[in-house]
Structure formats: C-alpha cells, structure tokens
Amino acid sequence: MHTYRVAEAAEVLGVSNDTLRRWIDADRVRAAPGEDGRTRVDGADLARLAKQIAENGADGLGHVARAGAVSARNRMRGIVTAVKKDTVMAQVEMVCGPYRLVSLMSSEAADELALEPGVLAIASVKSTNVIVELP
Q1: What phi and psi, each to the nearest 5 degrees, are found at residue 121?
Q2: pLDDT digits over 1-51, tens only?
Q3: What is the pLDDT of residues 50-100, one digit of tens each?
Q4: Is 42 part of a structural domain of the chain?
Q5: Does 32 fall in a domain?
Q6: What phi and psi, each to the nearest 5 degrees, are found at residue 8?
Q7: 75 and 114 share a domain?
Q8: Are 39 and 72 in the same domain?
C-alpha cells in the first residue's frame, strides 16, 4: 500500500498543504497517522481525488498556469489513477497537478514499474509521447 505525507499529496494535486488539510478535515480524502506519526494519505484514495479534480475541477484550487507556461519537453510528478492492461499493451492514466495524462506502454513495462492506482510516478512528455518512470 502506497501512502503519502500531506506535503507530497498536496504537490501531486497542485494545491497547498492547507487546502489538502481542509479537504482531509471535510472527509474529501481519508488520512491517518503513519508509522512515523505524520499524517499520511492512502495512495488509492489520493488517486481517486486526483481523478475527481481532473474531471470536475476543485473547490479551493487557485489559478493554475496551463500549457502556455510549459515547454514541449516536461517531466511532471503525478499519481497513477488507472491502469488498463491486456496481454501486450497497457494504458496508464495519471494526474499531474491540473493535468490528466495517458500513456501507452507494453504490459511488461507497466508490470516492471509496478504501476497501479496510487503509485507516484513521473511523466516525461515530448511531442506526442508520454513516458512514465518512477521518481
């Protein structure tokens, strides 16, 4: 099970730590103390919230600079929100801040990276290709 500190989860969502803490208090996402005593968010719950934000927007999400401030070659940290695999190919969906990205890769590559909802990963974008790697 993947869990994230509040600061890590907030970064993935593109919101402030305070905003995420308000969402935790409002039961928008579950959190619990981790082994280190710090509040941690379950990766699968974070993935669900990230997908919800990407699809519906977010209360409390301030103005976010979009593609105009982004070069054609980017590396963006985000959370895997869905993985669909067959015997040959895998479709990996990620939310990186305000962006929803989808990558196509071999099922073998997705298995080697152990990609599943809740896993933190980096999407490298160049032209029309999205390459997913672990941080």
Answers
A1: -145, 170
A2: 689 999 999 988 888 889 899 999 999 899 999 888 899 999 999 998 988
A3: 888 877 766 544 444 444 444 445 778 899 999 999 999 999 999 988 888
A4: yes
A5: yes
A6: -65, -45
A7: yes
A8: no
State the Cα–Cα distance between residues 81 and 66, nearest whole angstrom. Answer: 20
Contact between 38 and 5 under an 8 Å Cβ cutoff? The reply is yes
CA dihedral 120, 126, 131, 135 (to 10 degrees): -40
Tell me 69's DSSP state.
G
Tell me: do 48 and 72 sit in the same domain.
Answer: no
Phi-psi region of 114 (alpha: psi -120 to 50; beta: other; left: phi over 0): left
* Rounded CA separation 128/125 (Å): 7
Instruction: List the domain range (segments joined by +) for residue 48.
Output: 3-56
Q: Which amino acid is at 77?
A: R
For residue 51, what is the enclosing H or E element? helix 43-56
Cα separation, 123 vs 22, whole angstroms: 28
CA angle 25, 47, 104 (to 5 degrees): 165
